[in-house]
Design goal:
Layout: E1 2-3, H1 12-16, E2 36-40, E3 43-47, E4 68-70, E5 75-77, E6 80-81, H2 82-86, H3 92-101, H4 107-120, H5 127-138, H6 143-151, H7 161-177, H8 182-195, H9 213-224, H10 230-246, H11 255-264, H12 274-293, H13 297-307
Length: 314
């Protein structure tokens, strides 16, 4: 059983209340770095720097980072001087691309990353915005907690589906590269998803029907600017495959074009979810700025409570 020490004097009474014989991490300034106490059937072990018994969880990577270093006079980011080079030259979108990929974006990458960020930044009083507003009302001084509350709702149903769309498109592209036709790969993915009673990422929307105007705009601009590639092409095949599998048309929401365009622009697949997270952070900050002036979080909470009937047998 792993036992974690209490790290602050205010919790001293809690540490004292632990059962007799429980391993403790000393509180306050220590002569050596922090210790992780661990006890198992072989007896207690402690990890201390330099004694050969440091306990690591999982396999670590190399002890290095390529993102940033700093000294008294400079800050170097991805091999470039922040003050002498990057500040005043790169936009925030370009800087974000550099931070994530280690490369400065081409003009088309910057243009479409901007476009996609704008497309997903705001959509009204969504569950994420409501959570953020209510959190701010509960603690008006904790702006960061309110933003975090909203972003924590970025998941497989709301906001975070672009990542799942990316996985679907990567699978389809891999199958095409292995010799399948694009139509066969897409049809099979849709049919298997339907047969397993699953939901295909990127399809369906409670408001936008029969078309999501954001999807149409992203795809039109991608075609017009000549950046549509194999992933956008695969995305365009999915509506027909979905209609065939479900027996009815389902709207392709903006998450699918976001993933397709990012993949065609060589954005890392594992970081697709970063786009809605970054974009919606801006939207949440707008909601919180308004909430500071005109609080409606508790009003929404009250109306929500009024809408739910109490049933002891539910």
């Amino acid at each position: 059983m792993a036992l974690w020490g209490v790290a602050a004097p205010m919790y001293k009474s809690v540490a004292q209340a632990l059962p007799e014989g429980t391993a403790r991490v000393p509180i306050g300034p220590q002569p050596e770095p922090a210790i992780l106490m661990h006890e198992d059937q072989s007896g207690p072990r402690s990890g201390k720097k330099g004694n050969g018994h440091t306990m690591l969880i999982g396999k670590p990577g190399a002890a290095k980072s390529a993102i940033c270093t700093a000294d008294a006079a400079s800050i170097t980011i991805r091999g470039r001087d922040l003050c002498a080079d990057l500040m005043g030259r790169l936009t925030f979108t370009e800087f974000f691309f550099l931070l994530v990929t280690g490369k400065e974006p081409a003009p088309a990458q910057t243009e479409f990353l901007d476009l996609l960020l704008v497309s997903i930044a705001e959509h009204g009083l969504t569950p994420t915005a409501q959570a953020a507003r209510m959190t701010l009302d509960a603690d008006p001084a904790a702006l960061q907690a309110a933003v975090a509350a909203g972003i924590l709702g970025c998941g497989s149903v709301v906001l975070g589906t672009a990542e799942l769309c990316g996985r679907v498109l990567v699978e389809a592209a891999g199958r095409v590269a292995a010799g399948e036709t694009a139509e066969a790969a897409v049809d099979d993915i849709a049919a298997r998803t339907r047969a397993s009673s699953g939901r295909l990422p990127g399809f369906g929307h409670p408001l936008h029907r029969p078309l999501d105007p954001r999807s149409e705009r992203v795809l039109a601009l991608a075609d017009g600017k000549g950046i549509s590639g194999r992933h956008v092409g695969l995305a365009r095949l999915f509506p027909a495959a979905v209609e065939k599998a479900w027996g009815k048309p389902l709207v392709m929401n903006v998450s699918m074009p976001i993933a397709a365009v990012l993949l065609d622009l060589d954005f890392p697949p594992a970081m697709i979810k970063a786009i809605p997270i970054l974009a919606r952070t801006a939207g949440l900050l707008a909601h919180l700025a308004e909430e500071q002036k005109n609080p409606i979080g508790f009003l929404m909470a009250a109306r929500g409570e009024d809408a739910i009937a109490y049933d002891p047998d539910a």
